[in-house]
Specification:
The chain crosses the membrane at residues 267-285, 297-317. It contains nine helices and seven strands, in the order ββαβααββββαααααα. By secondary structure, it is an alpha+beta fold. The chain has two domains: 2-255, Beta Polymerase, domain 2; 265-319, no CATH class. The N and C termini lie far apart (73 Å).
């Protein structure tokens, strides 16, 4: 299915007109057209390629999935590839949706792989800022980028909340180490994936603002700078979260080692205390005469020795925090 829009002198005039009429409309230099394809066929893209004179390499990139987020500039148009991102708050699963866009002087053509990319949200952003529509195609591209970058921000926020919850679990008195390991691995994997779609957007937005493209006019410049600032913050946030997950994992391992050392200290200390009565009773169990042999005071002497030595070791270990 295809969706279309036509702006004339910054005013929305027409929607959902036939794709074949685009070439007739853009004859007027005051007209800007938007065309959206969802899961298009090769013939759909071939038709619009002829209508707008799109480069065959750009069309090929739009057909092939899993492109890197980028901006390729050709003689008559530019090709933009980007990804929206969202994280399920319950499962913590990160999903991305790819969108490709052809940017010409009078038209924006978006190509989505599936309905996962919410194009209605992009349209809503255009409708919320009608005063910028006079800036032409740059206005349409800004709404698209603004939606994509805000999605990156929201995904980073959800992952940040997940990491904070993981931090609390690390310092539980009886942590579930298997759950912590799975969660930290899953979070790190999501952050690596998010970084792949966020980091290249810095170059994309920066390139779109180049004067030679003539896409961003004076009215749009502050808005594109705002998007670029959000891109930088989302990228830095993602990087810091990756480092934080690594730190949490290292902290968990250190705490495991610390708890193991404490257990070993306690076990060793009690073993040393138990060795005292064992040694004393073993000495008095010899089958040879010794001081107190077969005498009541010998029994009391051994009992007192056991109590005094054991109490002395307990006090010594407690003082050194071994118990």
């Amino acid at each position: 299915m295809a969706r279309t829009r036509l702006y004339r002198n910054g005013v929305l005039e027409m929607e959902d007109f036939p794709v074949a009429d685009i070439s007739d409309h853009i004859v007027d230099p005051n007209v800007v057209v938007w065309l959206d394809f969802c899961a298009p066929t090769a013939s759909d893209l071939a038709a619009i390629s002829e209508e707008l004179g799109l480069h065959e390499l750009a069309v090929e990139d739009a057909v092939n999935a899993h492109q890197r987020a980028k901006l390729d500039c050709y003689e008559t148009h530019s090709f933009l590839a980007a990804y929206s991102a969202r994280v399920d708050e319950r499962s913590g699963r990160l999903t991305t949706s790819e969108v490709a866009a052809f940017v010409t002087s009078q038209a924006l053509v978006t190509v989505r792989r599936d309905e996962g990319f919410d194009i209605d949200a992009v349209v809503g952003r255009w409708d919320s800022t009608p005063g910028l529509a006079k800036s032409g195609v740059g206005f349409l591209v800004h709404g698209l980028l603004d939606y994509v970058v805000d999605g990156h921000f929201e995904a980073a926020q959800v992952l940040d909340d997940k990491i904070e919850a993981l931090e609390d679990l690390v310092f539980d008195d009886q942590p579930n180490h298997a759950h912590l390991q799975r969660s930290s691995f899953h979070l790190r994997k999501n952050l690596v994936y998010l970084r792949r779609v966020v980091t290249p957007m810095r170059e994309v937005v920066s390139a779109l603002m180049r004067p030679d493209l003539r896409l961003v006019d004076e009215a749009l410049t502050p808005y594109y700078k705002d998007v670029y600032d959000h891109v930088l913050r989302a990228s830095e946030w993602t990087e810091s979260l990756r480092d934080l997950v690594t730190t949490i994992r290292e902290t968990q391992l250190n705490l495991q080692g610390y708890r193991l050392n404490m257990i070993m200290k306690k076990v060793t200390s009690w073993a040393a205390i138990i060795a005292v009565p064992t040694a004393v009773t073993g000495f008095y169990g010899q089958n040879v005469p010794y001081p107190g042999f077969q005498e009541p005071w010998g029994f009391w002497a051994s009992t007192i020795a056991i109590i005094v030595l054991s109490a002395g070791l307990y006090a010594l270990f407690k003082k050194r925090d071994w118990l």
